[in-house]
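User: tokens in, sequence out, please.
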């Protein structure tokens, strides 16, 4: 096992099908961990490129929150922009459309379902970082659906772009890349975590529940409070959650 792990701390440099460099180290699984690649991988990439794109796993309420409140805070990273990825199909499904009807244009369902990315946009803007929304475009999408989402996002101060990478490879991502570069050049990032280090663990958890997940409050079981008190007594109260 030691022989297998001797190089595990070294990020893996790989090449994409279009000969672009990519670093793989750690995984974006926010349901079982913090949902980000390693700090070493990100800092290595920042030394090698002018612009670094990294993924925070799952929804912006899970992976992105942990990326911003845990990884960026502890590693001293300050993101310049956030890209939220959505699909018309998912938005219509959130709006009540059955799976066998998702190929049909349905602006009414889109209007209902778009409250989902609206909350994600609101969440990310709380961190003071400019937001770009991109639609992962499918051939069943219609121009009217794309236009509806575009106008919705721009009304909320977000740049918008279509992404067709799945179909066209790198060429399909040019529009998104241009919007990201425009944002980096013209919009200022004032990144700050959503809670301070000195806040108690109980209040940190409650802050995330209220601000990110929209909870009215948090009720702690006696066992949970006991565990929180123990962590704070052990000197862990200043750590992110």
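Assistant: Sequence out:
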């Amino acid at each position: 096992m030691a022989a297998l792990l001797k190089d595990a701390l070294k990020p893996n440099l790989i090449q994409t099908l279009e000969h672009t460099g990519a670093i793989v180290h750690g995984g974006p699984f926010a349901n079982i961990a913090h949902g980000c690649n390693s700090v070493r991988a990100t800092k290595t990439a920042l030394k090698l490129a002018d612009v670094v794109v990294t993924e925070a796993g799952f929804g912006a309420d899970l992976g992105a929150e942990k990326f911003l409140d845990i990884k960026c805070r502890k590693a001293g990273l300050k993101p310049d922009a956030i890209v939220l990825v959505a699909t018309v199909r998912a938005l219509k499904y959130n709006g009540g459309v059955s799976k066998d009807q998702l190929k049909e244009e349905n602006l009414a369902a889109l209007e209902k379902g778009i409250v989902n990315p609206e909350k994600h946009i609101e969440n990310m803007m709380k961190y003071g970082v400019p937001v770009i929304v991109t639609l992962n475009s499918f051939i069943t999408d219609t121009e009217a659906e794309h236009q509806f989402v575009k106008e919705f996002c721009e009304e909320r101060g977000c740049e918008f772009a279509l992404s067709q990478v799945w179909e066209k490879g790198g060429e399909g991502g040019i529009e998104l890349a241009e919007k990201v570069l425009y944002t980096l050049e013209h919009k200022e990032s004032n990144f700050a975590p959503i809670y301070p280090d000195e806040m108690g663990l109980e209040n940190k958890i409650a802050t995330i529940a209220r601000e990110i997940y929209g909870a009215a409050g948090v009720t702690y079981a006696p066992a949970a409070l006991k565990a929180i008190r123990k962590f704070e007594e052990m000197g862990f109260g200043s750590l992110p959650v």
